[in-house]
Amino acid sequence: MIAEGIRVLALAREWRAVTDLAVNGGTYVVDSGRYLPTPEGAQRYRSGVYRPRDDWRRVTKTERDLLLGITGKDDLHNTVILLDAPGELLHRAWDMRLDAMTRSRAEHQEGKRHALPFLIACVSEWLVEKVFQPFELCSAEVNFTHPPRVSTTYDSEQGRDRGLHVDNWGHPRRMPQERGAAGIRVGVNLGRESRAFVFVNLGLSECAEALREEPLDNHLATALADRNASALAECFLDRNPGYSVTRVVLRPGQAYIAPVQNIVHDGYTAGRRTLDVNLQLSSNHFVHREEFDARAVQVKRRTRPARTTGTRRYGPLQLLIVQGTPLCNIDCDYCYLPDRTVHRPMSLGTFQQTLNRVAEADLVEREFTVVWHAGEPLVMGREFYESAWELSRECARQGGFTITHSIQTNGLLVDSRWCELFTRLGFRVGLSIDGPAHIHDSNRRSRAGRGTHARVMRAVRLLQEHKVPFSLIAVVSSAMLPYPEEFADFFVANGIPEIGFNIEEREGVNTSSSLEGHEEEYRVFLRTLYRAARERNLRIREFNTAEQHILFASGVRSAQATPFQLLNVDSGGAFSTFSPELLGHRHPQHGEFTIGNVWKDSIRDAMKSDRFRALLAEIDEGVRLCGASCRYFPLCGGGAPSNKWFENDTFASTETLECRLTKQAVIDVVLDGITQDLR
């Protein structure tokens, strides 16, 4: 239960209301300073504090409208803003290894002493430019919260966590009506896992208004007489234990701006396996109303600028997909790569030239990700990635943007030294595993024909032991269809809270899919998996993405069908755009799908080439045909050109097996679930 009050304005690009916004059943009081059992472990709370219940759930449509709606009341003191901090801030924090602190207070203090001057300078410059006019810093702090603690606010005098509270720096006796102009706080997640900001979505004046209907006992009378905001907040929580607490999730590098002197709130780190690092800056200044309203309207309309060439929308670049080598050290039945037995390593010179071409093409807005993929990237060795990371860091510095790295591996070569590199360089790690051994080993075998599941699970354990955040991707083949619940149970039992899945596709040298002729069984699998995942609190990327599109998308277009949102480069420097799976294949009419080579062609010249224009025209025609004939088009945006080509022999076509299984079937299942939730 929530009422109209404090709003959430989400400016962060990767923030998703479906997965990152939740409410619970209210609060309860901790009666004594004891260790309180939680799902994550024991946490000691100060006597008499309030804690949010653990029964988090997705918001209903009504709750979502109350929390995300835009009204004339929106200003910084009635809004929690979520936005992206400068990428340099996160990477510098990781470079300084703030996320690797032990529990030593002396180490914490020393780390803060070295880190704070840079962090304050970086954030202050960003805040002056983007948010505050002017900005004056009242205080700054880096807070460390070790698992299994859930609350991040510590009372050092009593040696207890405070739980839900109101901040009172500067003017602790401000009355509720004065809190609408009180100070605000900026918090930045500098850790390697998501954290949350939890709050009651009523300002203190609304809390006081609600209490006017209550009997005026000594506690409430004293709180009002003493102008004690904390006591007033406690009175509200005590008399309204069923009022929901709102939770907003912040991924690494995301920040909140919140009126912490006007709302009951706390930091929340349930479920984390690694150290929480949170930079907090406090100020008494706020953004001009006109600028704030303009941003709100921009978010409401979901607008996003893009680079143009002539009148055509190109980019912005999101993913630079780089093939370090086509060689793979295993032999999956469903692999699409034609040269996976050939070791043709990319040189550092080719990677440097690739970065040069990207920088001169003016395709980057603020950041992009280098994805090491197509072949087994770890075959290239750690020294290669050390050097590649340094090259990208210098490119980002000169270009004024941020470059992150992601690596997709089968896991067989992962060891402690790789884990150290991933942590130190901030690589995002994706691991491929198809669930339980009997499913995984039916398709993912070594070149000697032996299963690889045990070795991949060794990689999972190493990543977990070294606290390296990673994601998992499974390929759904016909072997998996009878086991949806066993599939979900496997990941939950192994401490893996989130996965993604692809289907076995008909593309490249994999000229058939085991799912052909089994579409109804696949839909049954999906329905059961959707239910099982929700019951087990297992997040599945495809379901979450479909929910986001159903609830919020308007006129999306497939990134694979949008020129230069993806740039794909093979180990020799040949490059293409659109679907990365097309790299290395030929079109009987257009020739190779590559449109240039970084050693002899600029990206700008490639945009003007006849080959690129012919490919684009045929892909555009396919998107137009999808829009004219398919009811799923507003949630899909035209599908993947590679699947159209490999299945239909032309880009100027519509429905494919991949489309029916990964878009239509998933959307149908998720839409049924949302409909049930809203009844």
Automatic annotation (TrEMBL):
The keyword Repeat does not apply. Keywords: Iron, Iron-sulfur, Metal-binding, S-adenosyl-L-methionine. InterPro entries: Aldolase_TIM (IPR013785), rSAM (IPR007197), rSAM_sf (IPR058240), rSAM_SPASM_GrrM_OscB (IPR026357), Sulphatase_maturase_rSAM (IPR023867). It comes from the Bacteria. CDD domains: Radical_SAM. Residues 312-541 form the Radical SAM core domain. It holds the Pfam family Radical_SAM. This is GRRM system radical SAM/SPASM domain protein.
